[in-house]
Design a protein that fits this description.
single chain; about 35 residues; mainly alpha; 1 helix; about 95% helix
Length: about 35
């Protein structure tokens, strides 16, 4: 059904967003460490 498709789409979006956020956090931590040392 249409609603199921929309739910799946939202779920995919959320998964991708949290992955991107994780990468950004890792990158930020790396930059901070390099700036400190």
């Amino acid at each position: 059904s249409m609603q199921d498709l929309e739910k799946d789409h939202e779920h995919l979006l959320t998964d991708e967003q949290s992955e991107v956020r994780e990468e950004m956090t890792k990158l930020g931590n790396k930059i901070m460490r390099e700036a400190v040392s």
